[in-house]
Amino acid sequence: MKIEQIYTGCLAQGAYFIESAGEAAIIDPLRESGTYLNKAQKEGAAIKYIFETHFHADFVSGHVDLARKSGGTVVYGPGAKADYDFHEATDGEVFELGKIKIKALHTPGHTLESTTYLLIDENGEEHAIFSGDTLFIGDVGRPDLAQKGSMTQDDLAGLLYDSLRSKVMTLPDNVIVYPAHGAGSACGKNMSKETHDLLGNQKKSNYALRADMTKEEFIKEVTDGLLPPPQYFAQNVAMNKSTAIGLDQVLEKGNVALDVETFEAMANHEGALVLDTRHQRDFIQAHIPNSIFIGIDGSFAPWVGALIPDLQQPIIFLVDEEREEEVVTRLSRVGYDNTLGYLKGGIQAWQEAGKEIQTMQSISADEFAKDYAAGNINVMDVRKPGEFEAEHVENAESIPLDYISEQMDKVDPDKTYHVHCAGGYRSVIAISILKSRGLHNMLDVAGGYKDIKATDVPRTNFVCPTSDK
Fold first, then answer.
1. pLDDT for residue 314 is more than 80
2. Partner of 293 for a Cys bridge, out of 43, 303, 310, 432, CB 3.0 to 4.6 A?
3. Is the same domain home to 187 and 48?
4. Domain limits at 330?
């Protein structure tokens, strides 16, 4: 028996390859089916099953394409509805895979069809669970994504409480927990950076698995502090229920070199968004006017999903050489299939053609400290609300990058802003968006709050207002 976790850091997502006696199963695959086909070929195994723990909201799965290429059967839990053929498992159904068995445990709560898959090894021992978004390391799945009709997030949280206690917590402590996500995913709020653990450890350390926890306490704690989900989540669910085109077709259309004139025409006359995926320092030094920066070396796909509302938006992009296919692939993972090509020769070709470029003013934390000491500056903090509340520059204004489009009215075009995030990545994204909308009085603070903390700039934490009662 072989279990391999295939972890994708950008999405904080874990897919799984399981093999026994020449038969393989894939759990929660990403869009690119080649990864799993190659692993099966290397192991000399045939893919028999493609198990989905639920309809994913934060990425587009490659299950349909993988099933077509491998001959494997797609399996979902009870109640799943989709536009393609799949096997709807019943609660407790057992699937044989070589010398092992995989048992479907219906665990609704995160979504109604959410299912945990229990692996029973060659000796008949309960060895591991693949818990999807039902149970994470340190957390559980958010219950607000699958609300339908009269079904509220509290109702779903109540179902999750029951699922965990009747189906998961009854399993032996030495069962390994393999979740679908880790720290950085928006599918939970308190996930560990660890990507697997023993169930016994989670029973001791995971706040949601406390033995003495009532259902009312669980519902309150699990739903408290939930931020609105990224806008692309609902669209990804819809794609996962339909027959999304294969990655091969997306690459054929998107991994195309465009000359300067064609690139410019697409940007100016065909409504294509210019996405700059290089490092932020390169964007700061020179970029195409109205282009949006989201660097490939950060949390690229989730930020694209959070900030570009239309999955059908035509996208053309700038990229470092030999990373073109990577950009198209990572965009497709969150449903952006309308990529039309990249600028051949990059920013250098653009400049050599005599086209306009812009720069961004960036200052060090020490320079920021001098400006702050001189007084009367406007500090924009684009970190997440929790980061801001933990500690922030005194008198800074919180405009989280996640919601920058909804808070544009807070930005005064007549003022100059010193913009920072935690380390310098998100601030450049934010300024690029503001610049594309005609707001140019922005200074990036390089190194972000990490470097600001090393200066004498006064800082404070968030203080809840006192009650008048």
1. yes
2. 432
3. yes
4. 245-352
